[in-house]
Specification:
Blueprint lengths: L1 E2 L6 E2 L4 E3 L2 E3 L2 H6 L1 H9 L2 H14 L12 E11 L2 E11 L1 H18 L6 H22 L5 H13 L20
Antiparallel strand pairs: 1-2, 3-4, 5-6
Helix pairs in contact: 3-6, 4-5
């Protein structure tokens, strides 16, 4: 399952894929067509240079430090009897802020995830292991991730200066500033 980049609806089957994004319909794809053309026009070398700069010197939108940023992921599971909720969060922040968020979500999952049958019992260990793996990988990564490069490419399309706080939504996507 995927999510439409334009309207955020869940796509169970089918949809349209373009430049790494998924769309539920031709109408949603058409709304972002000019964005996709500009996205494809950004030279890869420019993205690589800017991503490397952000990785070492970028400003964290959460704490304001200039230690560099990266794109991190965390999962959260919350369950009650027959209902289980899962949420994936993409965090564009310094490693200290990301680790804090990942640790909080892991602890929250361990406390609130087990109480649903059967999916809470299944998803809690999956989310916990995934969060621990992301914690370890984010600490050992020396080059910018593909997710950071996508983030940088989107910022370049919108003309946003990198290193400034807050252009990403909770999914890590960039929305135009009015």
């Amino acid at each position: 399952m995927g999510t439409c980049y334009t309207c955020k609806q869940t796509i169970a089957l089918g949809g349209i894929k373009a430049h790494g994004f998924r769309f539920c319909s031709k109408a949603c794809h058409a709304q972002k067509a000019s964005f996709l053309e500009r996205l494809a026009a950004i030279p890869q070398q420019e993205v690589e240079i800017e991503a490397a700069r952000m990785r070492t010197e970028g400003r964290c939108a959460r704490c304001g430090c200039s230690r560099g940023v990266e794109v991190h992921h965390a999962l959260f599971v919350w369950s009650v009897i027959l209902v289980t909720f899962t949420r994936k969060n993409t965090i564009t922040a310094c490693i200290a802020c990301a680790r804090k968020q990942q640790a909080l979500w892991t602890i929250g999952t361990l406390l609130a995830g087990w109480w649903g049958i059967p999916f809470g019992l299944i998803m809690t260990p999956v989310a916990t292991i995934t969060n621990v793996v992301h914690l370890i990988r984010s600490h050992t990564r020396s080059k910018p991730s593909a997710a950071l490069k996508e983030y940088v490419r989107e910022r370049l399309v919108y003309g946003a200066r990198t290193g400034t706080a807050g252009f990403a939504d909770a999914g890590g996507r960039i929305e135009p500033v009015a």
